[in-house]
From TrEMBL:
Pfam families: GARS_A, GARS_C, GARS_N. The keyword Membrane does not apply. HAMAP family: GARS. Pathway: Purine metabolism; IMP biosynthesis via de novo pathway; N(1)-(5-phospho-D-ribosyl)glycinamide from 5-phospho-alpha-D-ribose 1-diphosphate: step 2/2. Gene3D superfamilies: 3.40.50.20, ATP-grasp fold, A domain, ATP-grasp fold, B domain, Phosphoribosylglycinamide synthetase, C-terminal domain. GO terms for biological process: 'de novo' IMP biosynthetic process; purine nucleobase biosynthetic process. InterPro entries: ATP-grasp (IPR011761), ATP_grasp_subdomain_1 (IPR013815), PreATP-grasp_dom_sf (IPR016185), PRibGlycinamid_synth_ATP-grasp (IPR020561), PRibGlycinamide_synth (IPR000115), PRibGlycinamide_synth_C-dom (IPR020560), PRibGlycinamide_synth_C_sf (IPR037123), PRibGlycinamide_synth_N (IPR020562). Belongs to the GARS family. Its cofactor is Mn(2+). This is Phosphoribosylamine--glycine ligase. Its EC number is 6.3.4.13. Keywords: ATP-binding, Ligase, Manganese, Metal-binding, Nucleotide-binding, Purine biosynthesis. PROSITE patterns: ATP_GRASP. It comes from Clostridium tarantellae. The gene is purD.
Length: 421
């Protein structure tokens, strides 16, 4: 099969490598891809961005299946557009993608179908929102409704912070329209976990859990980032938490998808907060997570293409997803300065002994086909092992074989003891 894979991050490099291992895959076109996919077996980067260009490419190049990495095009309706042209594409239709694209849509959906989530109110008027927060207890969480590049969530400790958040989002409109509506919700205390799943609209199957490390500094300090490392499975998630998740979150989500007639063959990412009152859903993403995917796919023993195909053939119910035993630790190597200002364009040197343990995120090939840094999060290094400690040790032992100027990484991925509850 010829695959068209859309996206340019570490997640897409991981998907491309996993797909390349499938005997059924002959070629993977990565649009636009990155320096990692450019060098990957069976892969070729193509510099196309718009839905129209991608449709033309798929038609003219005998593409059998398109897979969408990031959320933006899903929310814009790429799946609807491909389907209108009778092209096969893996992902939710536009209406279903609102589960990620609109926080008020997803919270209303959760409430309607009894999916366990924090209490909330939706506001379209800043005055009313300002009045509401005056009567509430703190901390409070204020969220812009639409996509805000991961920056639309404010945890407010005081009334003043809440007032400022509402003004930023609704009055100053700093997210360019994403904040014309906001969600204000109860603050939950606990620890976070990510669980990916695959659905065909009738059946849903979860993947192993993962633990992201969002903050830039050791000890979960400093500003949030796109993710500085992941452990999979999440060592704090117990069977009881999983049962709670399946009964009160995942299965109810599937019921909602069916009842609402949402057209969804794709991935659902559940962003969870595990509290001493049980497992709560913070958010849905309608695609694989980054950097969770890099760790989770490293442990997947099943053929990813066959798994995706089963969602089209209505055989997902019988598909047993196989996982390797043990853990995967993914340490992100970033450009010093990130998530603030950082320099790019430095050579990335990777020893051959570790190249199969690396997923490139912010790295491209220069005109001499040499890998150079192009982003804040440059790459992930993966370690696996029967025990968590082994996987952590292995990932960290490989870092010295990867060099670029201004290399920065957290030293405590997989080592944090405190889980907040
Ligand atoms: P979201 O985009 O909704 O997942 O929010 C981004 C991050 O904000 C989450 O990963 C949490 O760290 C935090 N967060 C969101 N909602 C809440 C909440 N209700 N209580 C505590 N923290 C939250
Ligand atoms: N790691 C969370 C996300 O992909 O949005």
């Amino acid at each position: 099969m010829n695959i068209l894979l859309i996206g340019s991050g570490g997640r897409e490099h991981a998907i491309a490598r996993k797909l390349s291992m499938s005997k059924k895959v002959s070629k993977i076109f990565c649009a636009p891809g990155n320096g990692g996919t450019a060098l990957e077996n069976k892969c070729e980067n193509i510099n196309l961005i718009s839905i129209k260009e991608l449709i033309n490419f798929a038609k003219n190049n005998s593409i059998d299946l398109t897979i969408v990495g990031p959320e933006q095009l899903l929310i814009e309706g790429i799946v609807d557009a491909f389907n209108e042209e009778e092209l096969k594409i893996f992902g939710p239709h536009k209406e279903a993608a609102k589960l990620e694209g609109s926080k008020s849509f997803s919270k209303d959906f959760m409430k309607k179908y009894g999916v366990k989530t924090a209490k909330y109110q939706v506001f379209e008027n800043a005055e009313k929102a300002l009045n509401y927060v005056r009567t509430e207890e703190f901390p409070l969480v204020i969220k812009a409704d639409g996509l805000a590049a991961g920056k639309g969530v404010y945890i407010c400790e005081t009334l003043e912070e809440a007032n400022n958040a509402i003004k930023d989002i609704m009055v100053e409109d700093i997210f360019n329209g994403a904040g014309s509506r906001i969600v204000i919700e109860e603050f939950l205390t606990g620890f976070e976990a990510s669980i990916l799943s695959i659905t065909d609209g009738n059946v849903i199957k979860s993947f192993i859990s993962a633990k992201d490390h969002k903050q830039i500094l050791d000890g979960d300090k400093g500003p949030n980032t796109g993710g500085m490392g992941v452990i999979a499975p999440n060592p704090y998630v117990t069977d009881l938490h999983l049962k709670d998740f399946e009964e009160n979150i995942m299965n109810r989500t599937l019921i909602g998808i069916k009842e609402e007639n949402l057209n969804f063959k794709g991935i659902i990412f559940f962003g969870l907060m595990i509290t001493n009152k049980g497992t709560y859903l913070l958010e849905y993403n309608v695609r694989m997570g980054d950097p969770e995917t890099q760790s989770v796919l490293a442990l997947m023993d099943s053929d990813l293409l066959e798994l995706i195909e089963s969602s089209f053939d209505n055989t997902l119910n019988n598909f047993k997803i196989k996982w390797k035993e043990g853990y995967c630790c993914n340490v992100v190597l970033a450009s010093s300065g990130y998530p603030g200002v950082f320099e790019k364009g430095f050579n990335i040197n990777i020893d051959d002994s570790v190249k199969d343990s690396i997923y490139i995120a912010g790295g491209i090939l220069d005109s001499n086909k040499k890998l150079i840094t192009s982003g804040g999060r440059v790459l992930s290094v993966i370690g696996t092992g029967k025990y968590l400690e082994d996987s952590v040790k292995e990932a960290y032992s490989k870092i010295k074989f990867i060099n670029f100027t201004k290399k920065y990484f957290r030293t405590d991925i997989g080592k944090i003891e405190n889980n907040n509850i």
